[in-house]
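Fold it.
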Amino acid sequence: MTEILKRYVGLDIHKHYVVVGAVDGEQAVVMRPRRVSIEELGEWAAAHLQPTDEVVLEASTNVWPIHDLLEPLVADIVVVHPNHVKVIAESSVKTDQRDALALARLLAANLLSSVWVPPAHVRELRVLVAHRQWLVRQRVSVRNRLHGVLHTHNLTPPAGDPFCADKRDWWHDLPLASPIRLRLRHDLALLDHLSTLLQEAEEELARLSVSESWAEQVPFLMQLPGFGLRNAMTLLSAVGTVTRFPTPKQLVGYSGLWSRVHTSGQTHRTGRITKQGRAELRVVMVQAAWAAVRHNSHWKRQFESLAARIGRQKAIVAIARKLLVVVWYVLTEQTVDRHAKPQAVARKFLTWASRHRLATSLGLSRDRFVEHYMRQVGYSHEVISACA
């Protein structure tokens, strides 16, 4: 097939349908835009797409099932970030038909760069992590509602966690009007239900952490200060595989922790962080940084030095950025973190083994579980024995 016969197909994806149009290498329209329902797309694609076609899709909520459906039928599929095709959104005349052809023409002109297409196990982990985060937000919301009742009626809860099981009688005995007691009872029941759902989500997260897809990376992350099971799995859901980032600078850029830069002529300015990339990666790195500066002397010294010059908030972002560079090196080189304390790592792995009876589910004792993963990270037999 010659280049002139190759078609460049643009798909403008919507909730219930896609609009498909195509051009050739000379930008001439070879397939006039048409609407195809999502239900009919598989049958239509098998009948009309050719093995030499190149297809472009704009990343959206339902892009991956469509990507997987079309991938075996065409030569290549390019999935682009919406920010890379702003020219379409900013057009003065905007229709679905024009958008589909605009995508096809940009692809034919080689003006588009593809985003990474996450494999199925990464997509599944992202769904689980996002679901757990949603459950946490709902639980926080319910707790805030209950605190609001106490504040409204000038009530002081007993010492300790006001939402633990042994405080329920205190809640039910509060001298409140019937409608408020009803709301209180419903909120407490909802809180119990959310706790059960969170337990199930975290059990699944723990199970995935020792699955074939993730067991090679999780222990290297968990040895780092600030990383437990949840933070490690959240980071891996965002990054997928670190090998797609040739340098740590690219990983930092993907997290949105890199500073904005304006350089023109004699002007050079840096500003706030870009906040471009996956937000959950940025959040988890800042959380890990706060834990690291509290519990690790190396990171504490760096933080205090930076905070004295630029303030605590900027300093913690800088520590998060530095820690992410360490993440890149540890995962890329599969090595021990030189600032980690073996005893602290062993304690983390013991907690990991105990969580939801994970070691037992693998047919291992907790000690054998810890020994296995410390050996995988790279600790010597002498160090492991000293931590026992």
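The mean pLDDT is 91.
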